[in-house]
Amino acid sequence: MGTVGIVAFAFGAPSSIRSNQLIGQIATGEAWGLKAPIYTQLDIHIESGVEVTYADEKPGEPPTTLRIARGAVGWAKQRGLTELWVAAAAPHLWRAWRDLRKAVREAGGGIHVRPCPEIELYPWNGWFSADSTQQRTRSEKTWNRRERVLKLMPFWLYKRVAS
């Protein structure tokens, strides 16, 4: 078994929207190249033949970014992984990466976190989808309004809201 894993965060719902298809493609490509398992959400499709673990979630009730990060770190620790690559939509990447790093710290460290470089190949505004069932991922304007608050929020408060 290798020491690298991929964590793929959905960006909206359902799995058929472009952002989630791209995230699935990026995660799958990295998994093939690195011979790595993936930890992800129900709305991310991973090609057959790739080892995948799905986060504990109820359909229609997506877990918070921090809950996914904590689940991924527990999964990684269980497997002895020392590196996690983040596959997320560009607008979501800063928070997915931050939450994953914080979850690693909470769990005692020992895991390096890095973003998948392919994320940068897609334009920022191309990640949003009017077809998403999650209003916050339908437009850049709606997303930014929410993210500004989350960026300014102290992490201790964010943890209480996102846990």
- CATH 2nd-level architecture: 3-Layer(aba) Sandwich
Low-confidence sequence ranges: none
Mean pLDDT: 95
Kindly report the CATH topology.
Rossmann fold
How many discrete structural domains?
Answer: 1
What's the assembly state of these chains? single chain
Described by strand count, sense and barrel closure, the largest sheet is: 5 strands, parallel
Question: How do the strands of the widest beta sheet line up side by side?
Answer: 3-2-1-4-5
Silhouette: globular
Coarse structural class = alpha/beta
The overall strand count is 5
Helix % is 40-55%
Question: Can you give keywords for this protein?
Answer:
single chain; 163 residues; alpha/beta; Rossmann fold; five-stranded parallel beta sheet
